[in-house]
Amino acid sequence: MEQFLAPVIPVSSETRPHMNIERGEQQRSDSSRNSEEQATPVKVNSPAQLLHERLLEIFRVSVTGATKDRVHLPGLSDELTQSASGTLTPNQVDTLLLERLTLFTTSRDAIEYLVRSFNRARDQLTGRTWSAAEHVTAVERSIATYLGLELQDTVMLAPNSEHNTVKWPILEELLLADANSSTSRYAGDSELQISSAMLALVIEQHGDTLDHVLHPLISDLAHKISRGSLVDAHSLSIAAILLRLFSCHPSLAACIKRHVGWSPVRFMNGRQFELESVLGPVLSLCSYKQFTVAQQYFPQGAQITRPQLRTVFAQVRAQLQSLHSSIATTLTQVLKMERKSPPRDHDGVLETVVALCQQNKSRSQLGHLMTRQVTTCSDGLFLNLTAVMLKLSQPFTEPKVDKHANIEVEFLQQNALGLQYSTETKLTAGESHDSTVAMTANYSFVTQCFFTTLQVLHTGLASSCESYLQFVQQLIHLQERRAQLNATRAEWSGHAMLSAVNEQQLKALAQQIDNLAVMKLTMDAQLLDPELLLHALQFYSFTARWLMHLADHRLTALALVPEYLVDDLASFVLFVLKMQAAVRAQDVEDVYQLHFPPQHYHHLVTFIVKFLVP
User: Fold this and answer.
1) pTM for the full model?
2) What is the b/e burial string over 211-250, where b = at least 16 CB atoms within 10 angstroms of the residue's CB?
């Protein structure tokens, strides 16, 4: 932003203020006259005059006549002439804007002007030594009010401009000006980058009357993300902008959650949610089975050196972890907003996550992998969601934190999040329902987050680990088939027809194996990320402590706990042990780095030995 320069305002000689004497000014030779001037106080602009000048600079208007970069406003000039102070104040900004906006002939020009003015206000009125900080809010609110009116096609603002035009593409261009887009007309122009803070202020004052403008914008941002990938910097930048909009202010968060693409229940299935919802495209930015990631990082196929593979894994995981942190930070902010003001006309964050799990419950069913359904969300999306929920749970699942006793097991009977356990097989027999427990019970955030994360692990991580093992088995089967053909080469090489068939089959197998091996590397980069596995081990260790606490202090409460919870816990521990054994067998421990501190296994092993070993 350019350094502020006080505007030159033509005034008469009678009213022209005296200017400060600069230190570098030439000294007069007459000592007596010099002494007299030093004894005379120098007049400076009053705070009111300084504010007047800065407001004229912010809005680039003049009250004394048009200049090269100022527009003369005669109406405002007449009003100031009749006022007692003769200076412009924030109370007169409405008059200024109303007169200035009527001079524009296009909505784009008016919107650009308001955005520039807002950004200049932030730059000129904040962080100054003179006392004007109290005027910042008033000026910004006035600008935001008129931007909202302009977006709503208010004829009174610009009677000569076009109306009934689509305004959201203009806002989108302004939002994406800093999204690494060299094609944007606003790229590099900091004054024309609309901030999420400005949009939040606009929505705060106009409420849902701007949904018809902002919802198409949000849809288009999500659509642009869905067409990109994890290796597309532009898609990641747009995702960051969408997340920033979601978390910067309650009014913007509420606007997004009013969007038709917010709740999973409004979509036919999980795959449609992944492609067309607000958050689905953001969560689907992954490496797992992604051809774009394979092309970007493994152009030479599976023939890659150890140092190269370590570098690729580090790069991909750094991108994923940055995305997970951004999403987790965003959801944390929104959850804090919801705690202060619970949502009424839309689902909250945890309710939405639960609804997504319910929509994709077939992922956890036995026949899901065999039928290869295309109606559920991808493994990549659920692995991202798993990483995010584990981050949200970290404050109460860390080994040094002893909060397992804070988990309210009554949540399993009835809850307002929509999690249903009545049809699930329980750990022990017994009464599993208490009619005195209200569905609207005010459970703690720790309890709600814990059971929501368990559901995400059940629907997402458990299924992904199982599908990964089946994928590896398929790859091993093809490798064994190729080895078998090569081993019997001497038997069929002398037969022309059989030799031609087998050579063609070997060639096809080699290509198929290489393709699958590359795809496996994209899966390894995400699923076998040591940070993800460590956080999952940490969470399941906490779960084991909670279950042992119930067994020691509330044994009958185990009749409420679904059996699959223990199955998921044990299966995941076995999966990690298998992966550690596999990387040792292939001598790639330095590449995969699946080394975890013993303390993360202590409670898990104790639980398994105590409850699962006959």
Assistant:
1) 0.85
2) bebbbbbbbebbebbbebbbbbebbbbbbbbbbbbbbbbb
